[in-house]
Every structure is written in structure tokens, then in C-alpha cells.
Amino acid sequence: MKSMLRHVFQMAGRLAWVTLMFASLPALGALVYDAQYPIYDEGKVAHPVSDIQQMLVEANAAGVPVIIYVHGRGDEPEKSFNPKMTGGNAMPRLAAEYGARVILIGWNSRARGEDRSQPLSHIVEAAATLRNALEQIITYEHQVPGGKRPSLLVHSMGSIALAKMVQQQGWPQEQQPIFSNILISEPDADSQNHSQWLSQISSHEPVYVTQNRNDSVLDKSRNSRDPPSNFALGLEPTPPYADGAIYVDLTDALKTKRVVLFKLGAHQVFSKSWMGGNTDTCLFVSKALGVESFDLGSIDGMERVAADHYRAQPMVDQGSPCFRVVGTGGDTE
User: Fold this and answer.
1) Cα(243)–Cα(259) distance, rounded to whole angstroms?
2) Could you count the other beta carbons within 10 Å of the beta carbon of residue 227?
3) Rounded to whole angstroms, how far apart are CA atoms 91 and 109?
4) 169: domain CATH number?
5) Backbone angles phi, psi at 70, to 5 degrees
6) Is 186 part of any domain?
7) Is the pLDDT assigned to residue 203 strictly greater than 90?
8) Confidence band (pLDDT; 50, 70, 90) for 57?
9) Within 10 Å of residue 155's Cβ, how many Cβ atoms?
């Protein structure tokens, strides 16, 4: 009997893995990363980094907020537009759910399963692309003073590119913040010693860092770390903490889903379909991606547990106006 049960669990595990693998495969004619054109708009059009200024000018003229999105691991840019891929369709979701113009900063993040080594080998290049994009945004803001600043959403392994950029060149010393807010969503950057690079950003910018101890993607993201005992910042921040950064624990607020016998905890926490109807999370992310400044403590259910540390309570209201628009696709992470 035990042998039979063991066989059933093994087969279920293989089935879940095959399901996830096929969900991650791009279709024929999929978008392919090109280092010369790493920037994408919502219409799936590839651009050189130099086009960012004009994209911001057009968004400002239209009076819509802008989200600069730095993606994580995966077959990008296809993943950010494909609802059939695991964790996919982020670009249309962000645009629809937050009423924003979205600009994707792409990098060569393709990976083999859970192995992080391949995308990590391209982090230096990704950091350079991110720095070039940042310079374009700064130039735009100098030329259009008083315009609404974009928000910056950095997801998962995108945080490693951000960390590398800061470690190599520091954060630009502008008189005013470059972004309305920076939301570092479930960062895959090392938790240990993260304050060394993050403090350089949070001393100039409003920065929010999310945490989900049930994040099933980051829980498996253990290889290629130094020391091996290290783990992802998005699971739990290790002190010392970054001065000025606000850490937001969403563990109790986010939903989990099941694939066969496996329980999946949210990784793409900015997608409303993963919020489980938690209004606190929805309001927090909406404000971080679309408001110049806000008081996180003013959101009901956001409990301040320590200086610059907040925790969202498991309060559910599916009828909240915040959930009027919820994107679809890519829900299996």
C-alpha cells in the first residue's frame, strides 16, 4: 500500500512538473530578446533604449501614469505578453489593472527550469541596459520639469540587475527623486547584505519591498547563491535593513493555488488575480504604481510592526472597487 501511494505521489509530481514546463514554452513566432531593441511598449513593439524619452513624452501628453517594468526570470519578452506561459501576460495585466502606460525594460533572462545560472550570466549586461534606461528617464525629466514621474516596478530576478547596477555605478545623485515610487516585487536578490545596495536607492527614492514567505517560486530559488545558506530577499529580509526602505509583508494576505497536489504561493504579487481579494494589498500596489506619495499606514489593515516594516492583514473584500479590473492568464506560477 505504501509503495502504491509513493508511486501515485511520484506520478503526480511528474505530471505537475510537465504541466508547468509546457505552460512555460513559447509558441512559434514568439518574441525573442534582442540586445539592440530591449525596450517594449504595450503593443509588442521593440525599441532601442533611446526611444524611452519619446515614449514618456507621449504618455505625459496623454495624461496617463507610466510604469517602468523590469521583469524577472523567464523566456522574455514573450513571457510578458503571453497569457499561456507560466507567470505570463504581465504587460497587458499592468496596463489594464492600473490604468497605466507600461514600458518594459528587457534583458536576457531565459532559464532552464529552476536553474538560475543562465540568467545570472547575463546580469552585467542587464545592469548596463537598466543604467542606460535610467539615464534616458533622467534626461526626459530635466527637459520636461514638472511632468508626472513614472513608477518603477522591479520583479524577482530583475532586482539582481538593479543591485548589480548600483554596486557598479551607484544610484544617480539627482536633486529630486527619479520615480514617484519604486516597488521591488518579490526580489530574488540575496537577502543577506541587501542593505548595502538598497540603501543607496532608498536614501533618494521612496522604495517598497514585498515579502511572501509562501512564495513557491522563490522557495525553489536556492542555487547559485554565495554563501549557499543565503536565500531570496522576497522570502524574508535579513538585517541590517536598508535605511528609508519600507518592507511590506504580504504573507498572510495573498492567496495560494493548487496544481495537482502542489500548493503554490503567489510570486507575481502585483497581479490582482493573485491577491485573493485582499483589499490592503490591492490598494498598496495601486498607490505604489500610480501615486506620487502616500502613507502606507493610512490603508486599513496595513499594520505597522516595526520602523519601516508593515504587514497586510488577511482581510478579503472581493467587491472592493480596487478589483473592478482584474487581468487574466498566466496564473500558474
Assistant:
1) 39
2) 7
3) 16
4) 3.40.50
5) -110, 110
6) yes
7) yes
8) very high
9) 26
Cβ atoms of 254 and 279 within 8 Å: the answer is no
Q: Are strands 101-105 and 39-40 parallel, antiparallel or unpaired?
A: antiparallel
| Lowest-confidence region among 4-13, 100-109, 123-132, 285-294 | 4-13
Amino acid in the structure at residue 241: Y
Which cell is 42 given?
504595450
Which stretches of the chain are assigned E, i.e. beta strand?
Answer: 39-40, 46-47, 66-70, 101-105, 151-155, 182-185, 207-211, 246-249, 256-259, 262-265, 302-306, 309-312
Could you tell me where the beta strands, DSSP code E, fall in 91-221?
Answer: 101-105, 151-155, 182-185, 207-211
Q: 251: which residues sit within 8 A by CB, 6+ positions away?
A: 211, 212, 213, 214, 311
Q: Over the chain, what is the mean pLDDT?
A: 90
Tally of domains within the chain: 1
Task: Decide if 26 is inside a domain.
Answer: no
Residues in the chain: 333
Instruction: Give residue 242's domain range.
Output: 32-323
What does the DSSP 8-state code read for residue 228? T
Greatest alpha-carbon pair distance for the chain in Å reads: 73
Q: Which of 200, 130, 129 is nearest to 167 (CA)?
A: 200
Cell of 204: 533618494
Is 331 a residue whose pLDDT tops 50?
yes
